[in-house]
Predict the 3D structure of the following.
Amino acid sequence: MVVKDVTEIKEKLARATRIMLNEGLFDLYGHPSTRVPGTDHLCVLGHLHGESRTLRTTSPEDIITVDMDGTLVEGNHEPPGEIYLHTEIYKARSDVNSVLHTHPPVTIALGIAGIPVKAVCLAGVDFGQGVPIFESACQIDTPEIGQKLAQILGNQMAVMLKGHGAVTVGVSIEQACSISLNLEKTAKLMLMVGQFGQVQPMSAEDLARYSNRGRHDSKESRKVFWVYYGERLPQ
Amino acid sequence: MVVKDVTEIKEKLARATRIMLNEGLFDLYGHPSTRVPGTDHLCVLGHLHGESRTLRTTSPEDIITVDMDGTLVEGNHEPPGEIYLHTEIYKARSDVNSVLHTHPPVTIALGIAGIPVKAVCLAGVDFGQGVPIFESACQIDTPEIGQKLAQILGNQMAVMLKGHGAVTVGVSIEQACSISLNLEKTAKLMLMVGQFGQVQPMSAEDLARYSNRGRHDSKESRKVFWVYYGERLPQ
Amino acid sequence: MVVKDVTEIKEKLARATRIMLNEGLFDLYGHPSTRVPGTDHLCVLGHLHGESRTLRTTSPEDIITVDMDGTLVEGNHEPPGEIYLHTEIYKARSDVNSVLHTHPPVTIALGIAGIPVKAVCLAGVDFGQGVPIFESACQIDTPEIGQKLAQILGNQMAVMLKGHGAVTVGVSIEQACSISLNLEKTAKLMLMVGQFGQVQPMSAEDLARYSNRGRHDSKESRKVFWVYYGERLPQ
Amino acid sequence: MVVKDVTEIKEKLARATRIMLNEGLFDLYGHPSTRVPGTDHLCVLGHLHGESRTLRTTSPEDIITVDMDGTLVEGNHEPPGEIYLHTEIYKARSDVNSVLHTHPPVTIALGIAGIPVKAVCLAGVDFGQGVPIFESACQIDTPEIGQKLAQILGNQMAVMLKGHGAVTVGVSIEQACSISLNLEKTAKLMLMVGQFGQVQPMSAEDLARYSNRGRHDSKESRKVFWVYYGERLPQ
């Protein structure tokens, strides 16, 4: 573990928090996390609310480090009550370096209606035949519930929490954020289309083009995404 | 009655008024009230409109004190025409310390459609099997209509006024505000889901978890809520 | 005709223009007018567009005076192409002192669907069993079309122009504006309710209460309305 | 080719980019182009993303010149990956001087539902019996796909790209922008009306009036449109 890495991780998680709040995917709550490379720890947004603080002023000092049991290793706040959605997904998915828990209103509405977000548009290419739905509105506040969630996520990049929110994952926090924003964007399209009847996902042929699409989903594009949503933050 | 208490009550009611206006639950009209501890009086937003003033600049000086008949005890304005929705609920509900009358657009739409807001999501856990609907769009401007409203409210925390608005109650003005905001938030979800068919509330099991949910609905959480919506006020 | 009256009329029409633009009822176009007391003339917003100006900076100097044939009497601009919707309504309705032509998006949507805005809520009490619909999307740019429009308006306070916009009238410009804002507000409610089936207007009993409702629709309330929407203008 | 012309073209394309972004028709991506008079070249927004820049700060220096094969002739950036939607439309349509590729959310929703935008309102008079729909969500990143798109566009002014976006054309960039904005505005109306059943376009009689409508669609009106949307840009 290199100190410089952890500093950068904390800065990115604080920025991710402010971006998600600004885009309406966090409200009073929500939390992102990232593995700490070379360790069995993760950095996650701490529980600020004991100090009556909202997420608006989240700074790197608000990011804490916990182990894979969710126990505090270092930091100024307690872990979030739902720390187990992070730890249990990391245990189940070695390909995942970042987990993000959001409260996206339209995705929640589709979840209540039992309609999985699907690859109906370019923003939805990561969602294929449909995002899995976790059927309970309970908090993910025990390791057992976290394991059940990880099982339902399977090898997908997102899971909808019925009546509650969503969780997305990524190789980086930038990707987890990008998938969260695309999930809600695609859900909004599906909500509009819903009144006209059932929506089919893109053709397999179109989807295949995008699984091999070069510049449109490159590292370059993830960097631009990060700048774009950063520019929308209040100054 | 302690003077310090009344000063704090008036500050909170003025702030509640500006928050409700800013969140779109008040428009030209709307009024919150709170019992004055140790007395048979209540503090309520006065009728500012004789001076052509809107609610945007509401200050503690605009909060008046009335008795349980709705008669002015102290203050710079007349009572609101609908004072009886406050007085009659206080008479019927000894557990209630605060009453809030709002004009939430989506809740009004569901009321017109005859659809009670239900516990379909986390924001809706206080609404169980459905919020009662007061079936007339009339003003609550006589003690008799106020009594009828209190009867329909029963032991619930909210009542929808068909074609008109809503009333929520709480042990504190913070709770009454929180319930009003959650009522409209849940109504918005139900409106989105409505096109896909009838919506079922959460399972009894999930609801039971939340009736005993610890930190998520603690005093701490109500304090954060108050800070969060305060931060959204125009500076 | 008193000069002071005309100055006040022009100030009010310019302010009405900026309010309607700010509330989304005017876009590039839209125009209010008022009779000039003691004359057979009317003041109306001139056609600014020859100078590539939008309505954002409308000032009293942009209000012109025309006669009942729509011919310019005094002012810096040509009359609007649709001047005949003003002149023909004034000829047909001696009780009307002000006419307002808007482009309200949701009212337009209901007009296309053939659904009249009705008294389904407090904001809609002026619309009774339904606002008449003018069935063509044509411009009201001849006296003959203006007469047809006046005939369809009849003795109502509003008329929907299918695929085009709306016209409201009043004893004053404040009332014509208030009715335009309430028309769109009520249309928004009806749009939300529409997915759940046909909407019935308020009961005759409730409507009767409001036709005799005292403070809630008094001159005082019109004055507050004017202040409220004025406060929302960009500074 | 006159230098002064190219300078003006680049300024207009940069301004068009910022307007489309501000109105929500561009997001991270989108690009306008214009023929360079007296040459076989076109000016088009370059691919800024290699420098992690968004469209918010687009300036005339970001506009590049390419030939009709999409090869860079002059400028600071590479051509966009979808340059072929521009080149192939120009080859097929000698009446077109400007092409605009947007990502309008409601138009995309209607495209997914298979519903062409039609002339249901004044804003839609350019869309007649229905805008053609390109049935694949693929990128227009080869000459062959560009030719197919041009074929589906035919002699219309707009084409919807299913699950992806839209392309509009014009005799000028102002017209292409105006048609893009009207396409989305009309789509929004159709989305609202959709819950009430199928929507018919205007009568042939009304449409005929507008094909010969004088001031309402004059050069003057295009100039005002440009000023109107320019005024809405952040300062």
About this structure: The two ends of chain B are 33 Å apart (CA to CA). The mean pLDDT of chain B is 92. Helices of chain B lie at 3-22, 83-92, 105-112, 143-153, 173-194, 204-211, 219-231.
